[in-house]
Amino acid sequence: MIFRTDLAMELEEQHRSEQIPGIVSQDETVGNLTINKIQITSEEAAQKIGKPIGEYVTVTVPPFSDDVTSANEEIEAMAQQIQRLINDDKGLVLVAGLGNHQITPDALGPKVIEGIIATRHIKGEVAEAAGLSHLRPVAAIAPGVLGQTGIETGEVVSSIVKDIQPSCVVAVDALASRSLDRLGCTVQISNTGISPGSGVANTRKELSKNSLGVPVVSIGVPTVVDGTTLAGDLLQAKEMMSDEQIRERFEPRGAMMMVTPREIDLVIQRAAKAISLAINRALQPKMSLDDIVYLSE
Amino acid sequence: MIFRTDLAMELEEQHRSEQIPGIVSQDETVGNLTINKIQITSEEAAQKIGKPIGEYVTVTVPPFSDDVTSANEEIEAMAQQIQRLINDDKGLVLVAGLGNHQITPDALGPKVIEGIIATRHIKGEVAEAAGLSHLRPVAAIAPGVLGQTGIETGEVVSSIVKDIQPSCVVAVDALASRSLDRLGCTVQISNTGISPGSGVANTRKELSKNSLGVPVVSIGVPTVVDGTTLAGDLLQAKEMMSDEQIRERFEPRGAMMMVTPREIDLVIQRAAKAISLAINRALQPKMSLDDIVYLSE
Amino acid sequence: MIFRTDLAMELEEQHRSEQIPGIVSQDETVGNLTINKIQITSEEAAQKIGKPIGEYVTVTVPPFSDDVTSANEEIEAMAQQIQRLINDDKGLVLVAGLGNHQITPDALGPKVIEGIIATRHIKGEVAEAAGLSHLRPVAAIAPGVLGQTGIETGEVVSSIVKDIQPSCVVAVDALASRSLDRLGCTVQISNTGISPGSGVANTRKELSKNSLGVPVVSIGVPTVVDGTTLAGDLLQAKEMMSDEQIRERFEPRGAMMMVTPREIDLVIQRAAKAISLAINRALQPKMSLDDIVYLSE
Amino acid sequence: MIFRTDLAMELEEQHRSEQIPGIVSQDETVGNLTINKIQITSEEAAQKIGKPIGEYVTVTVPPFSDDVTSANEEIEAMAQQIQRLINDDKGLVLVAGLGNHQITPDALGPKVIEGIIATRHIKGEVAEAAGLSHLRPVAAIAPGVLGQTGIETGEVVSSIVKDIQPSCVVAVDALASRSLDRLGCTVQISNTGISPGSGVANTRKELSKNSLGVPVVSIGVPTVVDGTTLAGDLLQAKEMMSDEQIRERFEPRGAMMMVTPREIDLVIQRAAKAISLAINRALQPKMSLDDIVYLSE
What we know:
The structure is a homotetramer. Chain A is built from 12 helices and 9 strands. Chain A is α/β, with parallel strands linked by helices. Chain A has a single domain, classed as HybD-like (Rossmann fold), CATH 3.40.50.1450. In chain A, strands 1, 2, 3, 4, 5, 6, 7, 8 and 9 form a 9-stranded mixed β-sheet that branches. In chain A, helix 3 packs across helix 11 (264-283), helix 4 crosses helix 11 (264-283) and helix 11 (264-283) packs across helix 12. Chains in contact: A-B, A-C, A-D, B-C, B-D, C-D. The interface between A and D is medium-sized, with 33 and 33 residues. Strand 9 (258-261) of chain A pairs antiparallel with strand 9 of chain D.
């Protein structure tokens, strides 16, 4: 991987010319949105791309369609994809919001958790009395980060999975992308969980069917760009320089700089709201979006 | 229990005239502080007082000694008591900050966790290289509340305890007291854990040696007063009316009102800082208070 | 004034039996809401009630109508009353959010300002290009509090009024009420400005046509109750004791305790959102509520 | 100006080879700190550098001296320079914290204001009784930003200056620098006020002796880097390419991207604390740093 990115779509773009077998990429337009679906089906393709076998859906909102209608469209489209990848409509779902709530670009996961409607504890007579007996059981947790807790994110989630035994985990995380243009307006949804070493903080343990024993659907939004990657990306816009040349040129100083736009607070706030609404919508299809908006506040 | 309070000291005061066997209460003055120690040694006393057998230490800072010196005195005194009640100086400690970070008077626990120096993950060569091989392993977690997570606080803590196997849990929580005067300037430290049904939120599961399998030291600060209790307390100041009379008079309307002072943000901020420093000091006796202050920020 | 309250409605209730001339009180029901209008028309009535001559409108939302529909009804009803009391639909309006943003129950004013759509700087070609030439000019400021700034709130507002010369000031502030039941679900709108010595913080300068030279519409939400008042209110519920008896009984200890409910963060957040939407709606009648909701976020 | 920067030190470096008359640059080492002083004395130099005639002091903390001792050294050094540039030790000082408190990299000014000890309102007998009659009068205000208030920052400050008539204004603002390395660890103090068009938000009015009628000392910390500048800076590290070449290459896409590091929350928190302590120390030389730290919290 030349450029640091967690987006399968960006990795696939870079390797497109190689025509790797075992990768299918498809674009679809829904209203103002672009939905890209990448299927990685062979171990060889997984190796080359640097992403596990599985499906990666990327929903992109056009930057200038900043209005109410497209906001709802976006939520419905994300909800559909989440529902499709979860592929089970009854069991308990554990939503895990990864990241550090004190570092804005890494706070996406914990902020999404604040908007998730937890229902696992509303049971039996109480649920019936409140007219809520049709709700799917949902639990939600923000496990914190290793530096704050002294416990790997994966350990916390795994401990809780063992005890409450969900049928599926939905893991939300901030990602790194190749380009500043994508920060906050792109959402990646995948059925492969979260791989070690990816993400904003770069030190995380695997969260996957392999490590947890249940399917893991991951939802990520790019919120940072690596400094070197940014320089290279700007550079390539004008002049076709090879990845290797750029890397060699910038690596020594740019390597550890993760940058984020000035308006990161707004980016995170909007993205967290949209994703928590989409997850709620996917998990409680019998509730209207209006009711979900009202309950999520 | 006539008045709603989580403070053993207030419960003992109310029953003092009854001369219950199995209770010893002792006051001590250290600089500007008052330290009260209550030992409950018989099951009968535990029943009457409404608190499990064990030791309850209450550290009170005089309201008008609002200066730097007494702040340090307070931290050192609390640290000593915490250390004494933990009664083990080597094993892994899990600090759990209970409560809801979005409700200020209930946010004490989560805010304390932000100041805890987690060290469990600093091991082996890394620790030696950083000169940190002498540190006691500490993990820290804010498990959230049932309404937000769908999982009982006790379940989350218990899941993690099973996996990381600490030798002791330190649980921090906001409490209810009888009097507004005590809010924010009183700290109760006990070796009995946290009992069900106490606390600000009133719906919590037990966190104790019984439920977790390891000793639980609890640290609590009163941050709310029940509306009825407040009215009764103000009333009794002037005229000796019996508890029962007051209760009968106020219960119907005042029962569910938990009130907190206007300056609750400041109260929580100061208390959380003092308690996280005291816990760090108790767990890392080889570090100076200055170093702890610097690392906790 | 026996009980400490900033609500004209509560003061009028207390004096109703006296049949003071120069006071008219009227109740109206609109959907789920109750709207009370009090006209104080004589200096004698103003003296007895402790409020300046003018109109006081109190909008009350029933506590159990916690749904989307009544939220919109509430906003529209408040917007209508604000519009009626401003009584001018073209000139520049300065919205001033009074209070201390660091003390939750006093943060209502500053939080409302965060939601106000400021338009004074969108002028000429820019406004036309953006299709915004029909907007009323609005400026918005949170002047802070004396203890933080060293400048009286009234001085800051007055300095700015002199320079930008609005045709009207809308001042938003947190209030004290007599009863915990009213906190957060009652809004008082008046055309008399803000009187000295009222409000949560108790140390403020007048903000009125008299002091600023332009009409001042004030909007307030009760967020605190005085400790003595609370005790008295609970007491009177059961047993008819005179105001004087209660005062005499509680004053010495309860005088300075301002209390607020445990859920004050939620109360402030919801009230601030509703009021900023209502002000925006009142000032920009050509925009739909949906557009206002979208722009206010 | 090829690179976008608000630091006189960076501008001077770029033009050093030209040997412009009317510029004197001097470096000094104090403990762990480097203090650079630039005097711009001629109009020609001011034009070439793009900064008004006056003095610019830049205090740089070495990145790896992250300990208590150097924190105090830094505060004392900044306080000395602020005091020297204010050059008057009695009159009322108005501290103005510029920027948008809702956008983290732009929130430096408002956050500094939260730590300023305002004293203008502590007068006469009250001051004497509290032993505070020796304090210099200080007022502090966060005027907000045009987009939120509809009023130019310069208008708000100017309105208040007219009314309270300070002998000096201290204006605090977030800056743009050329290099990510400087973000958060460099402070520029100048006696020339704030020039139009500089700063993070790029749309501000002049704040200077010229516009306000009183001397303006400005204090700024770089918190953002322009995307193009960043790319160019990384590029130049390896290969000497001219400013013009870099600009031509990147401008079209990178122009409007202001980037900030992932840890911006921590950078702002630490910088705001250090600067508010330094200002308090400069304005109240009779108070000890310990007392100032205690009062500023």
